[in-house]
Amino acid sequence: MKRLNIVLYGVLFAAVIVLYILHFTSGSVADATDEKESQRQAGSADTRIVYIDIDSVLNSYDLYYDLQQKFETQYKTSEAELSTKQKTFQDDVQELDYQMRRGLITRSDAQKRQQELALEEQQLMQLQNQLQTNLAEQQQVMMRQILNSIMDYLNEVKSIHKYEFVLGSQLYSGNILYANDSLNITKRVVEGLNEQYKKEKGNSGK
Length: 206
What we know:
This protein is mostly helical. Helix content is 76%, strand content 5%. Helix 1 runs parallel beside helix 4 (107-161) and helix 2 packs parallel to helix 5 (186-204).
């Protein structure tokens, strides 16, 4: 049976987060476009458009780092549990093979033991699938935690900085092909997110 791959899970975790942020950012921009059209018809001021580098935000966001560490710990625990059971199963198979080759077990007992081992193998496969499902679900939860924290923060500061559009940029897979560096608020957002997260950790006593 294939072993779980922590590197793959880490990459997928980051990739899925980026895709979700880009997806919801695009949705927000579409909603904001409708709102802007209404404002334009009412004679409001020009829109202020800024953007963030999503890769940089994730690489520098303390919450993302902490959740990654938590995820890796859960992964290692799950992998250790599965590996222990797999090792025990392999030892039992080898022991039965040894007994059968040397005639140390009756045919009926050997058949009974083979059936037991076949059942154990099915249970191991089910356990592996369950562990993978649990890890995938945990990824989804952590992804939403990060996404919500970023979206909530941007929503809080938009009135202060008068943002109307906050776009998400990502190298190669983003929708923004060019942007003036003066519109890049990544550093400000990262600092704000980390400051907010630090306060939340302090209040929770973690």
